[in-house]
Design brief:
This protein is an alpha/beta fold. It contains nine helices and seven strands; from the N terminus they run βαβαβαβαβααβαααβ. Strands 3-2-1-4-5-6-7 form a seven-stranded parallel beta sheet, sandwiched between helices. The radius of gyration is 17 Å and the shape is globular. Bound molecules: NADP nicotinamide-adenine-dinucleotide phosphate. The site of NADP nicotinamide-adenine-dinucleotide phosphate has 31 residues, from α1, β2, α4 and α7.
Length: 249
């Protein structure tokens, strides 16, 4: 039977690679994105060329009303959701603690943490046995920065990912008898547009020699770990996280 997945931030980067990999594994996919219509339309074309249904949904996942409307639309147009990939997040230009301010923290935590909680809530309301659901799987895309703290660069971003690791641990336990597995993936340095948003487009190449494997990773390599954690091949895993970080840990 075809499964139905939502990938937040599925228009570009890691989310795009996940959406395409899921389609290759017979999922119909809702691709959420924020503003880049052209990139999202391209993903839709590629998913449909694989013979799967694709629904695009432009919404800011840090906004509760938009999140609720998106899940209701999935119910209506695709059917019963069985997989959520909480992936959409942002990184802002490098700073140290002296430059942190309320506005930036609110934006960062709203985009990277509130959004994961809101989407997880809506997914649980559809998947958990106690709500009449048939189970499912959630993967939270965290970051290796949750473990390193990303000093002198992205301390605030790293802290949002620490919060996501805690969400993975706690929600997995809340859902352990409800048929919903919750796991995480911590990518390391991956070639995507996010580094330009973080103020340094060439960052992966600048620091890749510090990684044991000596290279940056691809979105496709991260997508494989996410797919594994959504699939029945990881049926005995919940509350776990996989680093996809070239040996840095
Ligand atoms: P990316 O290339 O910058 O793509 C981000 C995607 O998220 C885009 O599709 C964007 O939409 C969407 N998005 C951003 N904010 C959103 C919001 N509020 N609501 C809805 N959609 C939103 O990012 P990426 O590098 O693939 O990162 C994906 C995940 O991996 C993130 O959680 C990130 O923290 C994590 N990660 C990345 C790296 C890395 O090296 N790249 C390392 C560790 C962890 P538009 O296309 O419309 O702009």
């Amino acid at each position: 039977m075809t499964k139905i997945a939502l990938v937040t931030g599925g228009g570009r980067g890691i989310g795009r690679a996940v959406a395409l990999l899921l389609a290759r594994h017979d999922y119909d996919v809702c691709v959420n994105y924020l503003s880049n219509d052209v990139a999202a339309e391209q993903v839709k074309l590629e998913i449909e060329a694989l013979g799967q249904r694709c629904m695009l949904y432009k919404a800011d996942v840090s906004d509760e009303q938009q999140v609720v409307a998106m899940f209701n639309s999935i119910d209506e147009h695709l059917g019963k959701l069985s997989a959520l990939v909480n992936n959409a997040a942002l990184m802002l230009p490098q700073l140290t603690i002296e430059s942190v301010n309320q506005e930036r923290l609110t934006q960062m935590f709203s985009s990277n943490v509130n959004s994961y909680f809101l989407c997880a809530r809506e997914a649980v309301l559809r998947m958990a046995f106690k709500h009449g659901g048939e189970g499912g799987a959630i993967v939270n895309v965290s970051s290796l920065a949750a473990l390193t703290g990303s000093p002198n660069e992205y301390l605030d971003y790293a802290a949002t990912k620490g919060a996501i690791d805690t969400l993975t641990t706690g929600l997995a336990r809340e859902m352990s008898r409800e048929g919903v597995r919750v796991n995480g993936v911590r990518p390391g340095l991956i070639y995507t547009d996010m580094h330009a948003d973080g103020g340094e487009a060439g960052r992966v190449d600048r620091v890749k020699e510090n990684l044991p494997l000596g290279r940056g990773g691809t979105p496709e390599e991260v997508a494989e770990a996410i797919y594994f954690l959504l699939s029945e091949k990881s049926a005995f895993s919940t509350g776990d996280s996989i680093n996809v970080s070239g040996g840095l840990n």
